[in-house]
Structures are given as structure tokens and as C-alpha cells.
């Protein structure tokens, strides 16, 4: 706590007492620490690909370029690292727009069922590659919701992609949609690697990952869940995660029907 003192006078001009203001600075300090940690993370995330690009480029310049096989290999690495940086910067820009409330939402009536179908169209190929099965169960009584179609599609895509990424071959993914009061609840359940209890609290933080190397190898930026949470919250909804290490993960995307 930070304390501020101010004496005050009564109508006779005598000191009548003391005003003490106690300010909780722990919250302020926590925010400041989070800001510092964020800058450190961004720098580190960008530094890694830059170091790789630099060393491969130098090797090419030092003569490896004369060997077609090597140079093809090196250029592929450089190209991949550029893609990674582009993904990080794209996600950071989106987060920044969300932070400053500059995201333009195009609110319309949308069918969650159609969004699930669109998600399947785009992700099924990755599930097939891993011989995973995706089951979908949509209750009859699902109403349309008033929301930004692209934003919500991005959220569902992110959660389903995570389920596919973090579930081994032949795994099972269940997507269900049901009504709960005035909310549509989309649940994505997998029987994948799960998240250890100690990491669950922090999983929506920017750049927080259970296993950095694994996430990187899968092309992740560690920003997907925090973007998803921010989009859902901008819709007055919520996103919840339950998980058991080595058993599986379950994510609820809760969206109010509002205005329809
Ligand atoms: P990433 O780009 O690393 O996938 P996300 O923000 O989407 O970033 O997710 C953050 C981390 O949460 C992941 O790195 C992973 O450790 C964990 N995670 C997310 N979804 C799942 C899941 N379905 N199963 C297991 N771990 C998950």
C-alpha cells in the first residue's frame, strides 16, 4: 500500500484532523510487471528467428550458395522463419487493435451451425493427416447470435486447431453446441496431451505456452488463446478451459444471443 496524508482545518482555522489515503499499489505493480514481461517476450520471440535468418544468410554468403542442395535447404529455413515473424507481428497487431478498441465489428445475425461447418471445412484436412476423428453434435434449438462473423469464426478455428495440434494421432475431438439460458455454448473437447494444472491459470496470457519448443514446431505464436479470449469478451461472452494432463482438454466458448 502507498499512504498519502493531508491535514485538514475546521472552520476556526485549527487543524481538525488528518485525511489518510491508502492506495493499493500491488495491482499497479502487477500491471507494470506484466508490461515489462510482455516487452521482454516480444523481443525474445522476434530475436530467435532473426538470429536463425542471419546465420543461414551468412553461411550462404560465405559460399554455401554454390551448392544448390544446401542453398535450397537454407532458403527454406529462412523463408519459414520469415513466415513465423510475419505471424507474430500479425497477431500482435490484432491484439493491439483489440486493446485500443479499434477493431471494427460487423455485427450481424449469424448461424453458429454454419460457422462450425466452415471450421470443419478448413481444419478437417489437418485432422485427417493425423487420422483423428471429429464429431459434431448440435442441439436442435440453437438460435442465431448477433456477432461479428469473422471474429467468431477466428475464435472457433483457433480452438479447434489447438485441439488438433495438441492431440496425438488417432485422437478424438468432439464439438458440441448447446443453449444455456441466453447463451450459445460451443464446447471443443479433445483427448490430447492436456495442460498441467499449474499452467491452467496462465494459459490465456500472451505468449504463455506449456511447451515453447512444441508450440514453435507446430507453428504457434502463443497468442491465439489470448486473441480468442479478447474477441469473445468484446462480445460480452466468456471462454473457459478445463484440462487434465495426459487426458485431454475441454474449451467452452460462451456467446450471448443478444439482440436477436
Ligand atoms: P499456440 O500458438 O502456442 O498454440 P495458443 O495461445 O493458442 O498458442 O495456446 C497457448 C498454449 O496453450 C499452447 O502452447 C499449449 O501449450 C496450450 N494449449 C492450447 N490448447 C490446447 C489443447 N487443446 N491441448 C493441450 N494444450 C493446449
Textual characterization of the structure:
The protein is an alpha+beta fold. It has helices at residues 25-61, 68-99, 112-129, 149-165, 197-200, 212-217, 224-234; strands spanning 2-9, 15-23, 107-110, 133-138, 145-148, 172-180, 183-190, 238-244, 248-256. Strands 4-6-7-9-8 form a five-stranded mixed beta sheet, covered by helices on one side. Helix 1 runs antiparallel to helix 2, helix 3 runs parallel beside helix 4 and helix 4 (149-165) runs antiparallel to helix 7. The longest helix has 37 residues, at 25-61. It is globular, with a radius of gyration of 24 Å. Adenosine-5'-diphosphate (ADP) binds next to helix 4 and helix 7. Residues 158, 162-163, 166, 190, 192-195, 203, 209-211, 215, 220-225, 249 line the site of adenosine-5'-diphosphate.
Amino acid at each position: 500500500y502507498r499512504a498519502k496524508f493531508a491535514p485538514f482545518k475546521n472552520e476556526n482555522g485549527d487543524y481538525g484532523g488528518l485525511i489518510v489515503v491508502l492506495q493499493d499499489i500491488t495491482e499497479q505493480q502487477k500491471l507494470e510487471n506484466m508490461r515489462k514481461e510482455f516487452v521482454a517476450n516480444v523481443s525474445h520471440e522476434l530475436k530467435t528467428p532473426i538470429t536463425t535468418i542471419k546465420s543461414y544468410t551468412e553461411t550462404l554468403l560465405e559460399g554455401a550458395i554454390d551448392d544448390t542442395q544446401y542453398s535450397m535447404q537454407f532458403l527454406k529455413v529462412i523463408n519459414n522463419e520469415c513466415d513465423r515473424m510475419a505471424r507474430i507481428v500479425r497477431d500482435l497487431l490484432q491484439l493491439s487493435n483489440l486493446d485500443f478498441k479499434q477493431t471494427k465489428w460487423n455485427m450481424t445475425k449469424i448461424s453458429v451451425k454454419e460457422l462450425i461447418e466452415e471450421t470443419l471445412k478448413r481444419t478437417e484436412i489437418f485432422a485427417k493427416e493425423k487420422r483423428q476423428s471429429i464429431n459434431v453434435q448440435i442441439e436442435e434449438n440453437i438460435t442465431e447470435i448477433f456477432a461479428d462473423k469473422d471474429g467468431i469464426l477466428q475464435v472457433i478455428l483457433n480452438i479447434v486447431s489447438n485441439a488438433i495440434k495438441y492431440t496425438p494421432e488417432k485422437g478424438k475431438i468432439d464439438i458440441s453446441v448447446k443453449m444455456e439460458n441466453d447463451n450459445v455454448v460451443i464446447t471443443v473437447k479433445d483427448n490430447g496431451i492436456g495442460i498441467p494444472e499449474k499452467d491452467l491459470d496462465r494459459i490465456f496470457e500472451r505468449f504463455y505456452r506449456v511447451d515453447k519448443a512444441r508450440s514453435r514446431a507446430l507453428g504457434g505464436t502463443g497468442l491465439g488463446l489470448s486473441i480468442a479470449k479478447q474477441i469473445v469478451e468484446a462480445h460480452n461472452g466468456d471462454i473457459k478451459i478445463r484440462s487434465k494432463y495426459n487426458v485431454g482438454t475441454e474449451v467452452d466458448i460462451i456467446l450471448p444471443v443478444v439482440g436477436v
